[in-house]
């Protein structure tokens, strides 16, 4: 495993069983890299007085497991857009190699809508992107997700209009990115060395080659759309509008960002909503304290704590 700033407790990397699920040494090493990223992220946020808190599976893990959900493979952090933009301003100067602050502005082609803090000496490649975006060169080290939360208007009609528009734009720019290698007729090689060729995808690449489509103007429209109502600061909800999920799953109570508390997360502490119950019920239902083994929402990751993502990108070519 790569060297970390984080001091790991004795035995942390040992394989163990949690909730009947075997957490392997390999998974523990991935967790260690992510906790190291979290510690560095918290250092910078605390230095500049920026608010942040656990969200999604990380929030659930903090409350239910006092750490990672045993079968989870990432960390999710929430910030209001105002704090997120302040962090964007200082991040390039604060995060030094191997840490890398990734947004579309710092790493063209990543185009998430949110930020990721990555360890450049490791590999955390989303398999679908490995398969569909064969010419991407953006940083794909192990990461933690940092999501900006934007204003959700109380007017249901305006909300429905915004939600429809942001999903249309998100779908369109992601499709162009997935075809953005343009006409690439050669078979591609997956992470285990198997060769693949798909005629339908090749035709779609050829179409984009002819049309010379670019994801950039559509992505910019998408960002403009999700931040449309941010001059309103008294709405009931804010939401992680960059995620392709139903609005009911991605919205949070605005007031909860002003009322946080620290809880244990593995051997660190992380801020969470003091009123976490109502947010977790929106996310996972009333029975969220009952563990259910599910797959990561990333759809699979290529994870390696020993090799840089660059090794895998070279292998793919």
UniProtKB/TrEMBL annotation:
This is LicD family protein. Residues 45-285 form the LicD/FKTN/FKRP nucleotidyltransferase domain. PANTHER family: LIPOPOLYSACCHARIDE CHOLINEPHOSPHOTRANSFERASE LICD. It comes from Faecalibacterium longum. It holds the Pfam family LicD. InterPro entries: LicD/FKTN/FKRP_NTP_transf, LPS_cholinephosphotransferase.
